[in-house]
Amino acid sequence: MIALAGALLRSFAADKPGLALAFVAPIAFFSLFALFFGHLESRDGVRFPIAIVVESKSDGAERLAEALLARGAGRVSVERVEPPPSAGAGVPGFVGEIRIPPDFDPGAPSVIIDSRWPLPGVADALKQMVAAAGASAATGREVAPDVRVIDRSSSGTLTRAAVPGIAIMFILFALSAHAGRGVGDDESGLGERLRSLGVSARGRMLARFVTLGVIAFIQLIAIFVFAALAFGIVTESPVALVAAALLAALACAAFTSALCELCGTRARFASVSPIATLILAGLGGSMVPVAVLPEFLAAPSRWLFSGWSVEACLRAIEGTLAATELGLLAASSLLMLLVAAVFAQRNESR
What we know:
Blueprint: H1 2-14, H2 16-41, E1 48-54, H3 59-69, E2 76-80, E3 96-100, E4 110-115, H4 122-137, E5 148-151, H5 157-179, H6 190-196, H7 201-231, H8 238-263, H9 266-283, H10 295-298, H11 305-317, H12 323-349
Parallel strand pairs: 1-2, 1-3, 4-5
Antiparallel strand pairs: 3-4
């Protein structure tokens, strides 16, 4: 029995994919969350930039704006944004905004707050800020102390953000399970059969890419449909969502195809793909919203197709066509396909 156990342990030690999944993957996964929670708990960690948008020209509005600007302290930073963006557009780079409307009446003051933070609590903080600023601005009777707050914060932000993030992560895992067929040492012999039929290396790569793209697109649409039916997360722009899902699916398929060709063998691909998927999912906002990640972890999401995919799908759910992210997804897909084609030909000539 001891000899058998020793043989099994040696077999496990020789299994590189098994070792990666047993040790590297959980360490990488834990490290991401440890960095996130450490950042969340630290005194100089997550910050809350608030935008003050003044649309009224009255003296009372200016006094209230000054009082709001004085509320910034610690993690909360307050900045006046001019010229004011269009109503409902949101202010990029800020987790919430306080808007003083054009019809602001100092005698019966009201302001509009809007929080797009993926975690709860910001809307309540904005209301407290307005209450404190109203009391401060009331000195001299230029503004009534009781400021009415019109809350236009988006509800279900965290749930909406989870849909594309989890979808992209599990799409990458699912594609990894399918992509190894026909690669190098594939036990099924699919690659050998395709070569015997005269299918070139690039032809096999393109066929794999198309197949993976179809699978990924169907997965994305199925998840969005389920989210709509089960949790009421209905997209404001179906056309934008289809475009985002299509380009995100193609990017995932192109990356998986390129990784296949770079690895060259199924065994190597099986050991590398889970780690690559966890890194892409973690840094792209699939596990933790990018907005609450430390800056050194959030910055890479702006350069990763997984981050663009999550952002494009999330913006589509909110009713916006993310033209920049869609363009980046299309360009990166073409680049990854080119890499896959080059290495496919190189692997064939070996």
